Amino acid sequence: MPKQFLPLVGDSSLFKQALARVSDKGRFASAIVVGSVRHAEHCEQELSDFEQSRLVLEPCARNTAPAIIMAAMVVDEMHGPDALLLVMPSDHVIEDVGAFHDAISKAVPAALAGRLVTFGIRPTGPDISFGYLHMGAELEPGVMEVVRFVEKPTLHVAESMVASGDHLWNAGIFLFRAGTLLEEAERVAPEIARCAKGAIGAAIREGHRITPDVAILSECPSDSIDYAIMEHASNVAVVPMSPGWSDLGSWDALADLVGSDSTSGHVTALECDDCYIRSDGLEIAAFGLRDLIVVASGRRLLVLPRGRSQEVKQLLSAMESTAA
Description:
Layout: H1 14-21, E1 32-36, H2 40-46, E2 54-58, H3 64-79, E3 84-87, E4 93-94, H4 97-112, E5 116-121, E6 132-140, E7 143-150, H5 155-164, E8 167-177, H6 178-188, H7 190-201, E9 204-206, E10 209-211, H8 214-217, H9 225-230, E11 236-241, E12 245-246, H10 251-258, E13 262-270, E14 276-287, E15 292-297, E16 300-305, H11 312-323
Parallel strand pairs: 1-2, 2-10, 5-11, 13-14, 14-15
Antiparallel strand pairs: 3-8, 4-12, 5-8, 6-7, 6-8, 7-11, 9-10, 15-16
């Protein structure tokens, strides 16, 4: 199950929490959700206003640049090129929604003026799992120039950037005019723009569902919006914010968020220190453990030391090799 459809933090799913952040109809229009056609029913279960929302169902995954261009096309159709498009991943945690809304308010004038605005997280420490944004001069109150995008760094480089005070974590959240994004995409990523626009133009439309043309979309280069557009654009700005953000990119991130000695589901734990233990069915009894992450899902059990969950892809590769 994709993590955005799970109640990992709180009683509702991450997807539902993301929708709740933009539920104020006085400020936000109805949601446009871009996701895999395989997850259509999951999305529909979470969406409450089918009449106004739109669900763009990708028949094949081509990364975030085509996805966001297609969303901008739908916004342009519904509201015109001057409408602002707020792009949010649906699997993030934002604990201080008020601080997030304040950051959006700061970004609005810059976005209306034609800038591609991104939102950067003030680092709480050096982290090599995130890309970074190098800030430059202040363009207007609370809005900074983006000097460059920085790839996921080594620990030494991350420590230096955080110490400098002029680098932010790249959260992958954006605000821009639909027309600005489409114009910039045509300029710096013309093939992606051509395919994404063509796929939406030839889409199958059934009520709130929009299914882009698979033949056209499958020809589209697969690239992220950062690589394809933002890093090549000349009008990028960033709003720094500290809204209690996490991308829950690893089990360590989730464990840090919910706190040490956390258990969830069918778990009995005694004398366990700094452990995160979770099960959705298998009964787990743990005694005397320290600094571990233990997760049971279905018939599979994952056990690893705290601080090393970023390396789980190596374990998955080894499992696939064993199965083969």
